[in-house]
Specification:
The chain is mostly beta strands. The protein is built from no helices and eleven strands.
Length: 118
Amino acid sequence: QVRLVESGGGLVQAGGSLRLSCAASGGTFGNHHMGWFRQPPGKERESVAIVSRSGDSTAYADSVKGRFTISRDNAKNSVYLQMNSLKPEDTAVYYCAAAVIPGLYRYWGQGTQVTVSP
């Protein structure tokens, strides 16, 4: 059983930056692909960024390419999401998730709120 705890959300003005962190426990972190997802108000949850077990392969939603960077530190059992040039449309609850099989995210954190003001 993998437990994930996100942190780093908050209120920021448009154009600002935030760094989200996700700490994992209870499993072998390096065996899991990791992802960041978000759910904007009144909308479905969507994928934001994913990273491979080793961290050498990443993928991003078109809406965040060039602004967000996902990274992981397997020694610290953590995954990060650096978010720059934030826009009001980035406002959402952000979740991290873990998958042993790529694309099948079995473990989820409780989420952290990110609010971007105009």
